[in-house]
Specification:
Blueprint: E1 3-7, H1 16-27, E2 31-37, E3 45-48, E4 51-56, H2 69-85, E5 91-95, H3 100-110, E6 113-118, H4 129-142, E7 148-151, H5 155-165, E8 171-173, H6 190-195, E9 202-207, H7 216-223, E10 229-234, H8 242-251, E11 258-261, H9 266-273, E12 278-281, H10 288-291, H11 296-304, E13 308-311, H12 314-320, E14 329-332, H13 337-348, H14 352-368, H15 372-386
Helix pairs in contact: 1-15, 2-3, 7-8, 7-13, 9-11, 11-14
Amino acid sequence: MVKICMLVANEMVNDSRVLKEARSLVSRGCEVDIFAMHNEGLLKDEVIDGFQVHRIVIKSRIFKTKLFLPVKFLEYFLRTLVGVLKLKVDVIHCHDISPMLIAWLASRIKYCKLIYDSHELEYDRNISKILRLLNRWYERLFINSVDQIIVSDGAYRAKVMKEKNCCKLPMTYVMNCPPKVEVPANERKRLREILNIKADRKLMLYIGNVYYGRGFKAMIEALSFLDNVDLVVMGKPGIDIGVDLIKWQSQFGVDGRVQYIGPFHYSEVILLASGADVGISLIENTCQSYYLSTPTKLFDSIAAGIPIIVSDFPAMKQIVMDNDKGVIGAVVDPLNAQQIAGAIKKILNLDNSEREDIRAREFSLHQHEYNWFVQEQKLFEVYDLVS
């Protein structure tokens, strides 16, 4: 039995990618322990779907001043390292760059393999300039010391990682796709039933929580150019953006046309999403990591079989416009409300035959490429190389 220790720099509550990878490895007969951060209200230790989660308590968090940040990091470093060293480990799997120092040191002490799983493009992330520069140096320092590299997006991000880090190791693309599903035709009515929306109203669906940098101002403004369209958000607004959302709805005269529902368990998201008329996933170009991303919610919309509107950025455009099955939506400038509204109108004006063609293309893409069963095979291939 392969014994795996995963390190994450979050609380391990809603990290769908880590959860899916851990479940897949457990299903393959591996023993998986995950070290994460503790926070109030969470269990320090718990078993989830066959793997063990250990949450590290940082006692120095009681000191709120930034002067204690080095102390907090040192405590986190030592407590996590000691916890990892107590285990029998064959592979250390480091999610993102933050825990890499712990992962690298533990792998050297335990004489085990080290996998680096990159969820973001560290060279240019949407973080402060100082942290961005630190992360660049940090990743460049360690990236050629690992045994295998996994990238959550495709070749666009990987190309930047290789060039900027002079990395010679191969990179395996394991995308964060949903499980393989087939949506029954009768499920397409359920979203409207939950919202009590009349048949003559069209639904534009955004999946996920609401943050700045997701094109929401332009998205709400686009509603003002459309007469019979409502925006449904399957998620919650972030605390900081909530006031602006209310202001924008009033500013553009669309009060009452934006509804927030959920959150829902991931098993429900795709079934409910299938009832929308068009999906939308706009990312603003605030950093290269966003510009070259393929958002998880894009794959959810494909699985749901609804046409999708995305930002006109390379990786997203390749999936929506240039895949080998055919066009499944539209690409737009995420800051141009009129262009967004035009793309929505074009999709809503498709006849039933054209919509069914898009649904068939998305079904094929989901069944044969963009589902977790296909992606986990790539994960297994990585572990075959290090086991």
